[in-house]
Amino acid sequence: MKEVNRDILQKAIDQLPEFDPEPWLWHKIEVFLDFDQKISQASQALPEFEPEENQWNKIDLKLGVGNRKIIPLKRLATYSLAAAASLLIIFITIKHFSPAGKEHITISYSTEIKTLINNLPSAAKTELDSENFIKLCCSRNPDRCESPEISSLKYELENLNHQYSLLNSVAEQYGNDENILKAYTKIETARSRVIRELVSKLKS
Amino acid sequence: MNPATNINNDDELILRCIRQDRVAQQELYEKYKRALYTRAFRMINNKEYAHDVLQESFIEIFHDLKNYRGDSGLFSWMKTIVYRKSLLHIKVENRFKEYESERYDDEIAWRDDLTAEYLDKAIKNLPDGYRAVFILAEVDGYRHKEIAELMGIAEGTSKSQLYQAKKQLQKILHELKP
Known about the structure:
The structure holds two protein chains of two kinds.
Chain A: E1 3-4, H1 6-14, H2 25-44, H3 55-67, H4 73-97, H5 109-119, H6 127-140, H7 142-145, H8 148-174, H9 178-203
Helix pairs in contact in A: 3-8, 6-9, 8-9
Chain B: H1 11-18, H2 22-44, H3 47-64, H4 74-90, E1 108-109, H5 116-125, H6 128-139, H7 144-151, H8 155-176
């Protein structure tokens, strides 16, 4: 593009007038900034909320399900056959080589638990007994208590016990008001339910 | 017209503005209001809307100052915010015709008696799109690549629009001062 007298245009541009905004504009901006500041302060002071105590347990259970290895049917059949053969060999070996006189002292693990359960039919009558029953079962058969189902319930029970003790300390400090009594009832109801579930699962 | 030339140290002012120091924010506003308002008004050609744009721009400036990296200079950075908002206001991006294959052979001769007063009047009479490109390219020295980016158009369109704007300006100047 050819331009003649370009310097004249440049001179005119350099001398173009400037304009001032109205004096009230700053006050308008200030109002916006104040509002912005208030919103930002208020949003920082918003309350935070805790998820339910057993939320992690739920997640943990789901993660467990996802991570489980799926064994193909063919391989499963092979494993089962191998396990059955091993058990047969062990059984024959014990039959042939164990001294006849010592047979009566062989007690299987499952029998022991069964005996314990049978001896404690009234153990679940009170929660304390039930909790002792759970502890006893888990100490005798830790594998059973490590199953996701039972460990989840145990975790829930521990949390409820913790909440119970926290509530106790609050009640000691501030006395029992209506809300604290309501919270006691809520925790106790939940504890009873969890204990009942645990006992029934351990008995099954 | 460019306040960036006589401003030595904005760094401290910027830091205070980031800390939401209202006195510093007003200081920054006072320092640049004239230069920025002039740009908004010249681009939009309407006092009321230019005030709106300046207000929106300063709110964005104070909000985004924490992200300002300093590579372009504070005034340039603020000026771009004002122009972007002004362009949004006049919504010129869809008004352009493509002149990619146009030849710029016609000579543009500026009159010897051209003054700032007449040029200002002529700029006001330009259609929005021409005015925007002329202001960005000639008054504020933006490159076509930058104009294209700012306006969301092709670089070629920016060049052809500037050519058309100048031709149109000549016509208007002739009408204003035969």
